[in-house]
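Recall the central idea of this unit: under ordinary conditions, the amino acid sequence of a chain determines the structure it adopts. In this exercise we apply that idea directly, starting from the sequence alone.
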Amino acid sequence: MSEKKIENYTLWQEFKDHHNEEARQELILKYLPLVKYQVGRIKMVVPGFIEEDDLESYGIIGLIDAINKFDYRQEIKFESYASRRIRGEIIDHLRRLDWLPHSLRRDAKQLQETAERLAGKLGRKPTVNELADALNISRDKVNQLYYQIYSSQWISLFDQKGDIQLFEIFKEDSDKGPEKHYQQKERENLLAEAIDRLSEAERLVISLYYYEELTQKEIARVMGLSPARISQLHKRAVYRLRGMLSRKKEQLV
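Accordingly, the structure predicted from this sequence is:
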């Protein structure tokens, strides 16, 4: 591959071919903005108490791993290759965390079991009032419990739905055959219908995050809201989308 076809060609050559540690360190510094960018996007889908510094630390681990394994002679952009590894390392770290307090986990289990029992008995999803009566707690307490459970989750369209990531529905692949292309269009139509049912603010957050690929802070500036409010809108929008699309799972997979 010629020098013109890859950024920082000389540094990659020095590191990979001559094992130059200074070149490796310089590559890490040059590509650190990739970590900042991925953290800025992931921060929107995690609870507020997760520190950016922690996310960046694991992102850097992913970056270093990408630099060590990258073959600069291949026809691959390092930014694309590294972004997947950075994001993957951060998400793996988050999945290893268990941030629900024991008391909340106990209450959540009781709420879920009660909801399932009532659903089986009633033949439908129980109302908040019915759950409150069954648990002998107030309606406000049920709503608060749902909110605490919901707020503790980091939910994203990057999560799996069957054998497909919902985020993949947003992507267009011109190399697909006619059948795959048709299926993709059907998925996009289902997603578009679901997005149309969101509030205006929720639709804008989804558009800026998944289509424009802005970070949480960038979206906050565009919409004139706090980053925390943007995170809340995103989580609520995704929660609603997943609920609407789960009823059409057969058409998505």
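The longest strand covers residues 160-161.
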